[in-house]
């Protein structure tokens, strides 16, 4: 198993609260979010980890300076491209075919949730939370474990859960993934998410969705997301994001 963490974006929706630092470097109570994530993967025996950096890359590398073996790639166009371009800049890592997780680096996962993800052997499979519907950011509709619809604009009965920012892919699927990735970059589709590689397959081949409802996760897009993480870990933050144990 290998893991690609995407951390190139600026995070404009919350950046004013973070003193301009990358979202994955927020303090979650005694350590940074990205440190927690790396240590969690190491605990599961996963050490083949790469990150794509962009905005304030030096802050992330300084945060992880004591963690050996992480491969870094850089998206110099992070301010004018989306995450599909970041994935393309890590193509040397992804082309060394193995079972692969691709994950947004600003996502917090409780350990049991990661265990569920690692136990899932469907491919390609995206992970969703069926307990979050109306408040969901990026919404999925899935039926019988297959993705049917997707998008921020979904409403009502078209929402069965919120995408949590992680996909898992088998070694056998990765050549197809890379072919689609190269094709989309060649046709200048660099303003879309890496997940669009999978979305273009919907209706043509099975794209699975695995439910993670009941287990805790949060993506640091808004201050409310950050506060949810702190509460889960037994901390609170004041308006300057100083963290205190509850």
Automatic annotation (TrEMBL):
The keyword Nucleotidyltransferase applies. Signal peptide: none annotated. Residues 4-123 form the MobA-like NTP transferase domain. Keywords: Nucleotidyltransferase, Transferase. InterPro entries: GlmU-like, MobA-like_NTP_Trfase, Nucleotide-diphossugar_trans. GO terms for molecular function: nucleotidyltransferase activity. Coiled coil: none annotated. Pfam families: NTP_transf_3. The keyword Transferase applies. It comes from the Bacteria. This is Nucleotidyltransferase. It comes from Vescimonas coprocola.
């Amino acid at each position: 198993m290998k893991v690609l963490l995407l951390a190139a974006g600026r995070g404009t929706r919350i950046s004013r609260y973070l003193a301009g630092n990358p979202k994955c470097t927020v303090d979650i109570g005694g350590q940074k979010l990205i440190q927690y994530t790396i240590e969690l993967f190491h605990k599961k025996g996963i050490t083949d980890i790469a990150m794509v950096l962009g905005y304030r890359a030096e802050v992330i590398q300084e945060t992880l300076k004591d963690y050996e073996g992480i491969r870094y790639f850089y998206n110099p166009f992070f301010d004018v491209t989306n995450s599909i371009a970041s994935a393309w800049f890590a193509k040397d890592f992804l082309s060394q075919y193995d079972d692969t997780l691709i994950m947004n680096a600003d996502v917090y996962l409780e350990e049991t949730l990661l265990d569920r993800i690692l136990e899932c052997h469907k491919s390609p499979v995206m992970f969703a939370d069926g307990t979050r519907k109306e408040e969901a950011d990026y919404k999925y509709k899935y039926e019988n474990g297959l993705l049917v619809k997707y998008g921020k604009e979904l409403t009502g009965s078209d929402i069965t859960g919120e995408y949590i920012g992680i996909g898992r892919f088998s070694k056998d699927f990765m050549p197809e993934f890379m072919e689609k990735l190269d094709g989309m970059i060649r046709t200048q589709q660099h303003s879309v998410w890496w997940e669009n590689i999978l979305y273009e397959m919907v209706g043509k081949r099975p794209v699975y969705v695995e439910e993670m409802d009941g287990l805790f996760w949060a993506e640091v897009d808004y201050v409310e997301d950050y506060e949810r993480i702190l509460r889960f870990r037994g901390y609170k933050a004041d308006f300057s994001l100083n963290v205190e144990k509850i």
